[in-house]
Design goal:
10% strand; 801 residues; 29 helices; globular; 6-stranded mixed beta sheet
Length: 801
């Protein structure tokens, strides 16, 4: 991965002034509230446009709605008329049990554990109710500070006068007995979460006001107009969209007797399950066995494992640093079938709306597949471990062969799935891959629908790998950030993310040609900015007079003073310097030359046979897809999206106690002397900066230049599209609905994931798969300034002749 610097620079760190390598941050995020007088980091001069801790962030581009998915359940403790508790619960015992239910207690003594096991159902229900109202209170504080959701009350609740009356009215139809376990059994967190999961799936707080057949629209309308299934459909989901299941059966030596002894051992152990039993067996159920065939990514099992068994969850989710595969003793595999990415969590749809609308046209699982994959893996490892691309090739061939109309397939990819598919288009015909030959694509693929594909990467991949942060995490308020830090710290997140070889595929591509040269306006620099891009920000700056609001640097440092700001190539160098050598060695082998742009015909030819080039469309041209092939690019615009970051660097010895610092050095394979973290005190409405993150136009996740450059310009040049495939670009302006029925933004929302439920996008897709994709119905639709931005990108000359 040629990032513009030598491996020697990696070894000594990316900051010339200090050879020490930065490390994972250790402190929780502290955000400044509106009107706060704190100014210990940022110094103001009284102007409203200063980037300081006292200014509020409000981007020029409309921020996406901060959607909160909150299911509220109310329960009332009822004492059994025939059973009463033989003793009153002591305050000490109540406190201990309450702490245990919240997962914040330490280990308990043997006697205390035994006493807790005597709890009767009335007491268990009491603590369940207390937990619910604690959750309601906590939800109030965990919201993002900006753009609160305005709920329109359903008609039956509009005449209520208080919270109690409102809850009784709105929850009157909920059967509480279904949420609680049988009174004769002991309540445990797994049973509670399982019951809540079922309740969320079957109950909607506002189900009475959701339009009938909403999930099948606009498919039902188009079916009435005569559209029907024609082309087979392949769906390729994006990063984190596919559920991941644990596959760890018990060892051959672990029998039922062991399990019985373990149950006794567990009930007589301390709070961590490590106490001694009275029997001769002290064996624990292996971590992975507890979750066999349960999804540790997706569904409520993920939250159960993360909250109650975090170490086990991390052990499953991380990859081996040296091999990039499963760590010894742990196996996680992508879920299969349409269920793998229809819903990620109960009520949170991903591909469910598209699947339902395809069904409205007559599709079923004989005519469409969802090609799920383990998005943690590098693309080459997907084939090596799971034979993913071999299965995808065979599946497409089978769909085409069995299609009743004899039609070729339409492949629909979303987000990172578009990078996976771009890789597949080259793999499938290459002798080094599927060896399908030059005509395989022409014989099997009718068109490619690229939904919100980050073809040139995303800046948030940089911040995630530097410090485990992104816009979503830094916008939590103080309470939310503190809880998130204690539950799953920035350092833990960054360490986990770096093991995922799939994530670096999302690093920004094209280097300074795409993302901006230092000291010069970037191609996507706002041309109507109220503040000149070269004007330094007030407040803490580095020695060269920056940070500024210019996009020409990807990472700007607010402190200390002696660190230079980072262009995109230098920012990737920083990412490399923070990761272990074994990890970055795999990155170099999998994704070579991320920062390069083809500068000669030799570069374009070399990419044909080098798999490490197949994720970079600025080095690898489109293959021969046939005369009638069409590539559709559809994405949202008009939403504030991450573009650059303001960081601070601290010496951990100054902010971390010695014990924690020693733990860091023993647990992590990187230097723990320095901590990088986004400086959340940096805010400016005029410069579109929120909590240390500068924003540009995009779809709330991917900036416009990555969404649109290849579609609006790159693939319309001969160097990147030598066989002349037809490119159609359709932008969709976000028109988010904040009404009560629109927790996901409504049918006109165009944010990154919600685009999959956008009615206009679904209608375009249904026209394509039904064979009605004529030019009079589907032609270019530009709303943003992407064509002007694209013309400002200065590619090497002489390759389009």
């Amino acid at each position: 991965m040629d990032t513009g610097s030598s491996r020697l620079r990696k070894r000594r760190g990316s900051c010339d002034s200090d050879p020490d390598q930065p490390a994972h941050p250790a402190q929780p995020i502290h955000t400044s509230a509106q009107g706060s007088s704190e100014s210990s980091v940022a110094h103001t001069d009284g102007n409203s446009d200063d980037l300081s801790s006292t200014s509020r962030a409000a981007p020029r581009y409309r921020s996406p709605v901060r959607r909160r998915y909150v299911s509220v359940f109310s329960a009332f403790a009822r004492s059994s008329p025939t059973r009463t508790s033989p003793t009153r619960t002591s305050p000490t015992r109540t406190h201990s049990l309450h702490r245990r239910l919240l997962g914040i207690g330490g280990s308990r003594s043997h006697a205390e554990a035994s006493e807790t096991n005597l709890a009767y159902p009335t007491q268990r229900r009491l603590f369940f109710v207390v937990g619910i109202f604690f959750g309601l209170a906590l939800t109030t504080f965990l919201g993002v500070r900006y753009t609160p959701i305005e709920f329109a009350l359903p008609e039956r609740a509009q005449n209520t006068t208080g919270l109690g009356d409102y809850l009784l009215t709105i929850l009157g139809d909920v059967d509480i007995s279904n949420l609680l376990v049988n009174s004769s059994a002991r309540m445990n967190p797994a049973e509670v979460l399982g019951n809540l999961t079922e309740a969320i799936v079957s109950f909607s707080l506002f189900s009475s006001v959701v339009p009938e057949n909403e999930e099948f629209m606009p498919g039902l309308k188009l079916a009435d107009q005569g559209l029907h299934a024609k082309h087979p459909v392949v769906l390729v989901p994006g990063i984190v969209s596919t559920g991941l299941e644990a596959w760890n059966p018990p060892p051959a030596s672990y029998d039922q007797a062991d399990a019985g002894h373990h149950h006794q051992h567990h009930n007589n152990s301390n709070g961590n399950g490590n106490g001694n039993s009275n029997g001769s067996h002290n064996r624990e159920i292996p971590c992975g066995q507890k979750y066999f065939r349960k999804r540790l990514w997706g569904t409520m099992n993920q939250f159960q494992a993360l909250l109650l068994d975090k170490d086990c969850w991390i052990s499953h989710m991380k990859l081996d640093e040296k091999t990039g595969m499963d760590p010894p003793g742990f196996r996680l595999r992508a879920a299969q079938g349409l269920d793998a990415a229809d819903y990620l969590f109960p009520g949170y749809w991903v591909f469910a709306r598209i699947i339902a609308n395809l069904a409205a046209l007559g599709y079923d699982n004989n005519q469409m597949i969802l090609a799920s994959y383990d998005w943690r893996l590098g693309f080459a490892d997907l084939e090596k471990r799971d034979h993913y691309f071999t299965y995808l090739k065979s599946s497409i061939e089978l769909l085409v062969k069995t299609n009743p109309h004899g039609e070729k397939a339409v492949v629909v990819s979303h987000s990172m799935g578009s990078l996976v598919l771009f890789y597949f288009l080259h793999w499938v015909q290459s002798p080094a891959g599927g060896n399908g030959g030059d005509t395989w694509l022409q014989d099997n693929i009718h068109s490619w629908v690229n939904l919100a594909g980050p073809m040139l990467g995303v800046p948030k991949a940089v911040s995630s790998l530097i410090s485990g942060e992104m816009r979503d995490t830094v916008q939590l308020n103080f309470v939310g950030a503190s809880i998130a830090e204690r539950l799953f710290s920035k350092r833990d997140r960054a360490a986990l993310f770096r093991t995922w070889t799939g994530l670096p595929s999302m690093l920004p591509k094209g280097g300074e040609i795409i993302w901006g040269h230092s000291g010069e306006p970037a191609p996507d620099e706002p041309q109507s900015s109220p503040v000149p891009a070269s004007e330094p920000l007030s407040g803490p700056t580095s020695s060269n007079g920056i940070p500024t609001n210019s996009f020409s640097t990807m990472v700007d440092y607010t402190s200390p003073q002696n660190i230079s700001n980072q262009t995109i190539t230098e920012a990737i160098d920083l990412v490399v310097s923070l990761a272990a050598d074994a990890i970055t060695d795999r990155w170099f082998k999998t994704y070579n030359n991320l920062s390069r742009v083809a500068s000669s015909r030799e570069d374009l030819l070399a990419a044909h046979d080098d798999p490490s080039f197949w994720t970079n469309p600025l080095l690898t041209p489109l293959p021969n897809l046939g005369d009638n092939f069409k590539l559709y690019c559809m994405y949202g615009v008009g939403l504030a999206s991450e573009r650059k970051y303001f960081y601070k660097r601290e010496k951990l010895a100054d902010v971390m106690d010695p014990e924690t610092l020693a733990k860091c050095r023993s647990e992590y394979s990187v230097d723990c002397d320095w901590a990088h973290s986004i400086d959340v005190t940096i805010n400016s409405k005029e410069r579109s900066v929120e909590n240390g993150v500068q924003l540009s136009d995009g779809d709330s996740t991917v900036p416009l230049i990555s969404l649109g450059y290849m579609c609006a310009e790159g693939w319309r040049r001969r160097r990147y599209n030598p066989f002349g495939a037809k490119i159609v670009t359709r932008e969709h302006l976000d028109r988010t609905d904040t009404g009560v029925t629109s927790f996901r933004g409504g049918p006109n929302c165009s944010s990154h994931t919600e685009l999959l439920g956008n009615h206009a996008v679904i209608e375009d897709l249904l026209l394509i798969v039904s064979g009605h994709d004529t030019e009079d119905k589907l032609s270019d639709q530009f709303i943003s300034e992407i064509r002007e931005i694209s013309r400002r990108v200065r590619l090497p000359d002489g390759l389009d002749d």
